[in-house]
């Protein structure tokens, strides 16, 4: 009776989700005793969550057959809504997701969907006069802002590399090469290293002035563009092993690992162009909270970066890269020690080290979808690298997946809520997708976990061929 009431209360629509909840309640998630069986159970659930619960909800529903590219904004029940402006990040991420789905499922229908995105990136989002990708265009493809960002161009490169990998379309590789060289010419800092994030239309870096809002990030270098440039160069180097790409990839790995990550093991968010940290720690708490978008601990970015650094190190072929692995572990352990919900599981959004308070204070208890997705991926990787570690990565992975199944996945309409319903119940009827939320984080995490679990669970081949 208790199990039935809980199932009814949670509104579980699928047998998979209900079984997961029963697994949690009955205590059968002790993976030290039944690791093999538990991995198989999670594997089945993740396969469903990746395909039927995610990709099938977006594609081909979001293909814009009128103006090209992808529709970006959907209500909680996956009905399109709003003016459907198109941002380089969203368009690139959908191009990437469909390309990776084509490779993952050996399904040629996804290649066509990815090609659809490539055409929009090439024909509408690329600035034919000055080069570089526009940040934002309207649904038809007309630029709404002439400003450009290293962050958005990084995702353009990331998408083009993936599409080229799945299609062999050399036009996509050519555009990725042009985008890389555009960043090299305009955004790369040859003196202090790294990349300028904010750029004028012609590529001139934006200089921060005293009249700018102190809360604005304009003119700063930052961790977020840096980690995604690292990610993009990793993907580009995989399909185009050019010496300059390798040089920039290694430069970004060392810059992130040795400068952007703080001694405590978390990412400093923003820096002046000469790499002085932007910190408000010596200010009054009111001022700190007003400027928290520039200065806080982002646990999700920390666990994501631990994975991206390892991925970059492996792409570079660095043998026995103890420094990178040690820093990644330090970041994950810091996030688990300071930003993990021990009761329900999941990573909180933001923390802060106030000078007059002990430890790291949680200043935002919401648990956004992308941090939980990245957490699943990284925790599972670390559970294989450090199987007997006292941080118990495998147990945390299991608990996080149970949290996602219970509070994050919309078992009725598909996809994940933007934030967990335990702290943000209003998200149940909020937008399911928008220009900052699509399939990228979630599909990458699920597909990576599926591959890893398939290799270790004895469940046979991870994928079934379809669409050919």
Task: Provide structural commentary.
With 468 residues, the protein is mainly alpha-helical. The protein is 53% helix and 4% strand. The chain contains 15 helices and 9 strands. It has helices at 2-10, 15-26, 31-58, 88-105, 108-125, 150-167, 170-186, 223-239, 243-260, 285-290, 299-315, 322-339, 369-385, 393-408, 440-457; strands at residues 86-87, 136-137, 148-149, 198-199, 221-222, 270-271, 297-298, 350-352, 361-364. A 3-stranded antiparallel β-sheet has the order 7-8-9. A two-stranded antiparallel ribbon has the order 1-2. It has a two-stranded antiparallel sheet with strand order 3-4. The radius of gyration is 22 Å and the shape is globular. The model is unreliable at 1-37 and 459-468 (pLDDT under 50).
Topology readout:
Elements: H1 2-10, H2 15-26, H3 31-58, E1 86-87, H4 88-105, H5 108-125, E2 136-137, E3 148-149, H6 150-167, H7 170-186, E4 198-199, E5 221-222, H8 223-239, H9 243-260, E6 270-271, H10 285-290, E7 297-298, H11 299-315, H12 322-339, E8 350-352, E9 361-364, H13 369-385, H14 393-408, H15 440-457
Antiparallel strand pairs: 1-2, 3-4, 5-6, 7-8, 8-9
């Amino acid at each position: 009776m208790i199990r039935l009431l809980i199932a009814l209360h949670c509104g579980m629509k699928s047998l998979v989700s209900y079984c997961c909840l029963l697994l949690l309640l009955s205590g059968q998630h002790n993976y030290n005793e039944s690791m093999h069986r538990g991995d198989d159970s999670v594997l089945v659930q993740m396969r469903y969550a990746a395909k039927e619960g995610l990709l099938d909800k977006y594609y081909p529903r979001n293909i814009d057959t009128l103006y090209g590219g992808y529709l970006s904004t959907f209500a909680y029940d996956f009905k399109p809504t709003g003016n459907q402006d198109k941002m380089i990040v969203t368009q690139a991420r959908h191009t990437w997701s469909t390309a990776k789905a084509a490779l993952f499922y050996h399904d040629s229908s996804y290649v066509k969907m990815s090609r659809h995105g490539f055409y929009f990136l090439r024909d509408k989002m690329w600035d034919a006069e000055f080069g570089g990708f526009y940040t934002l265009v309207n649904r038809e493809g007309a630029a709404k802002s002439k400003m450009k960002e290293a962050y958005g161009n990084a995702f353009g490169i990331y998408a083009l590399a993936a599409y080229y990998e799945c299609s062999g379309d050399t036009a996509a590789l050519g555009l990725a090469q042009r985008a890389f060289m555009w960043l090299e010419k305009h955004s790369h800092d040859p003196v202090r290293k790294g990349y300028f994030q904010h750029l004028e239309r012609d590529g001139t870096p934006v200089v921060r002035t005293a009249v700018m809002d102190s809360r604005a990030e304009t003119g700063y270098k930052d961790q977020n563009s840096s980690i995604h440039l690292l990610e993009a160069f990793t993907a580009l180097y995989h399909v185009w092993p050019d010496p300059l790409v390798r040089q920039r990839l290694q430069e970004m790995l060392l810059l992130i690992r040795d400068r952007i990550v703080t001694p405590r093991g978390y990412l400093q968010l923003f820096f002046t162009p000469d790499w002085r940290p932007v910190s408000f720690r010596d200010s009054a708490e009111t001022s700190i909270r007003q400027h928290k978008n520039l200065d806080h601990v982002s646990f999700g970015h920390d666990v994501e970066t631990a994975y991206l650094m390892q991925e970059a190190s492996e792409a570079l072929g660095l043998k026995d890269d103890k420094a990178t692995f040690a820093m990644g572990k330090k970041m994950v352990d810091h996030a688990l020690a300071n930003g993990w919900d021990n009761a329900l599981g999941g990573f909180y959004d933001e923390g802060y080290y106030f000078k007059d308070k002990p430890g790291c204070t949680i200043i935002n208890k919401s648990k956004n979808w992308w941090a939980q997705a990245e957490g699943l991926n990284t925790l599972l990787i670390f559970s294989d690298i450090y199987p007997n570690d006292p941080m118990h990565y495998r147990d945390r992975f299991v608990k996080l997946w149970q949290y996602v199944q219970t509070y994050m996945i919309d078992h009725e309409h598909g996809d994940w809520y933007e934030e967990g319903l335990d702290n943000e119940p209003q998200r149940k009827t909020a937008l399911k997708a928008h220009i900052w939320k699509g399939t990228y984080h979630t599909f990458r995490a699920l597909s990576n976990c599926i591959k890893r679990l398939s290799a270790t669970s004895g469940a046979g081949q991870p994928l079934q061929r379809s669409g050919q």
